[in-house]
User: Which sequence fits this backbone?
């Protein structure tokens, strides 16, 4: 779980998870670099400190067949049955609501 961690700690955890998954898939860092089109130093930096562009993280996730974690990355939690049904149907608001302007009432 990544809750209540600092950004550096989260990056470190994700890098370690990437390394563990790469090893579980029996891939070398060189092979992963080739599969992602990234440099070997980028792969090493990601695994050691979780540093890299978001594009690199996505390419690593795809190469390691771990993209299912990306599907829920920024999804809003559903709190009601209506929200769950709307999410299942793919209906989403396209814009935020405008703030309400309070009108002064005449005396």
Assistant:
């Amino acid at each position: 779980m990544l809750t209540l961690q600092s950004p550096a700690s989260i990056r470190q955890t994700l890098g370690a998870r990437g390394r563990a998954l790469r090893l579980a898939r029996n891939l070398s860092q060189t092979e992963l670099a080739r599969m992602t089109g990234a440099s070997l130093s980028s792969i090493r930096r990601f695994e050691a400190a979780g540093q890299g562009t978001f594009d690199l993280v996505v390419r690593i996730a795809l190469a390691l067949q771990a993209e299912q974690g990306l599907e829920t990355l920024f999804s809003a939690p559903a709190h009601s049955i209506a929200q769950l049904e709307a999410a299942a149907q793919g209906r989403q608001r396209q814009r935020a609501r405008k703030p309400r302007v309070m009108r002064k009432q005449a005396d």
